């Protein structure tokens, strides 16, 4: 579709299992892109808009869990639709870049491995996301034992962190399957390394895929 007005911003998502370092790296990427002269907003899921943040509280408290994975997928989709319509799409339309700490791939990896069918998730994604798909997705890959160890140092487990190790392993595989299925959009980042090394890999991926090379002169 031809754009009128400013050129559309680019949409970058960070995905991965618990405690893999997404939030840490999202903020570092924000700084890098700003230094490179881009207008950038940072957001997250579940949440990112006032209404979606309310739904986040229900989900992370486990209040939707008794209704099963389809219902959880529905709640994530309702939150995502609001987030996309009121935060992500307007920003991109103004030429601002958007970094989101988690997005639709998390529903595939979490609710998909819990039993929500890919057909249902396709339909929810069509409603919630439409054409606002990420230009680049960084999948931070980490052994879930290490991710849970890191997460436990920071806070008590929420509804999803509290799941068993085999569930976390299935989610890790689901993220890697998404990356393998969509290599044009996804880059897998080895998140087992130190924070600076991971950040360097992310900068390299963003540079290669989106043509960003560093601070604007
Ligand atoms: N969910 C979400 C779904 O089920 N479906 C969906 O559709 C969506 C969108 C969100 C939960 O919702 C689920 C997934 C999640 O379970 P959340 O509180 O937002 O919950 O949790 P997470 O997104 O998992 O975020 P976390 O904060 O738990 O992990 P991060 O952001 O990956 O990790 P981060 O950066 O906070 O780092 C964790 C700790 O490790 C350290 C940090 O300092 C921090 O203490 N750290 C490192 N340590 C060593 N080496 C490194 N390289 C490190 N990088 C960071």
- The percent range for helix content is 40-55%
Spatially, the strands of the biggest sheet line up as: 2-3-1-4-5
At the first level of CATH, what is the class? Alpha Beta
End-to-end separation:
32 Å
Q: What is the fourth-level CATH superfamily?
A: P-loop containing nucleotide triphosphate hydrolases
CATH architecture: 3-Layer(aba) Sandwich
Q: Can you summarize the main beta sheet? A: 5 strands, parallel
> Element order, helices and strands?
EHEHHEHHEHHEH
How many structural domains can be distinguished in the coordinates? 1
Short précis:
The chain has helices at residues 22-35, 50-60, 69-93, 104-114, 118-128, 144-154, 165-181, 195-210; strands spanning 11-16, 40-44, 97-101, 136-141, 186-190. With 217 residues, it is an alpha/beta fold. Helix 1 packs across helix 8 (195-210).
Features:
217 residues, alpha/beta, Rossmann fold, 5-stranded parallel sheet, 8 helices, 53% helix, globular, binds P1-(5'-adenosyl)P5-(5'-thymidyl)pentaphosphate
Give an overview of the whole structure.
The protein has 217 residues and is α/β, with parallel strands linked by helices. The chain has a single domain (11-210), classed as Rossmann fold (3-Layer(aba) Sandwich), CATH 3.40.50.300. The chain has helices at 22-35, 50-60, 69-93, 104-114, 118-128, 144-154, 165-181, 195-210; strands at 11-16, 40-44, 97-101, 136-141, 186-190. Strands 2-3-1-4-5 form a 5-stranded parallel β-sheet, with helices on both faces. The radius of gyration is 17 Å and the shape is globular. The model has no long low-confidence stretch (mean pLDDT 94). The structure holds P1-(5'-adenosyl)P5-(5'-thymidyl)pentaphosphate. The site of P1-(5'-adenosyl)P5-(5'-thymidyl)pentaphosphate has 26 residues, from helix 1, helix 4, helix 6 and helix 8. P1-(5'-adenosyl)P5-(5'-thymidyl)pentaphosphate binds at residues 18-24, 45-46, 60, 76, 102, 106-107, 110-111, 150-151, 153-154, 158, 160-161, 194-195, 198.
């Amino acid at each position: 579709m031809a754009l009128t007005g400013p050129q559309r911003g680019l949409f970058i998502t960070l995905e991965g299992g618990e405690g893999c370092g997404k939030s840490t790296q999202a903020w570092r990427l924000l700084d890098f892109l700003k230094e490179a002269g881009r207008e950038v907003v940072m957001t997250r899921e579940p949440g990112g808009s006032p209404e979606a943040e309310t739904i986040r509280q229900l989900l992370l408290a486990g209040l939707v869990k008794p209704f099963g994975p389809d219902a959880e997928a529905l709640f994530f989709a309702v939150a995502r639709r609001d987030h996309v319509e009121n935060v992500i799409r307007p920003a991109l339309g103004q030429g601002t870049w958007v970094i989101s700490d988690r997005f639709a791939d998390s529903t595939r990896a979490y609710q998909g491995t819990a039993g929500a069918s890919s057909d249902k998730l396709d339909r929810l994604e069509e409603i919630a996301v439409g054409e606002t798909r990420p230009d680049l997705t960084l999948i931070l890959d980490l052994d879930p034992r290490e991710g849970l160890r890191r997460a436990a140092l920071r806070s008590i487990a929420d509804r999803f962190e509290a799941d068993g190790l085999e569930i976390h392993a299935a989610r890790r595989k689901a993220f890697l399957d998404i990356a393998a299925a969509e290599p044009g959009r996804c880059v897998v980042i080895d998140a087992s390394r130190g924070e600076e090394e991971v950040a360097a890999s992310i900068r390299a991926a963003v540079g290669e895929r989106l043509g960003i090379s560093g601070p604007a002169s």
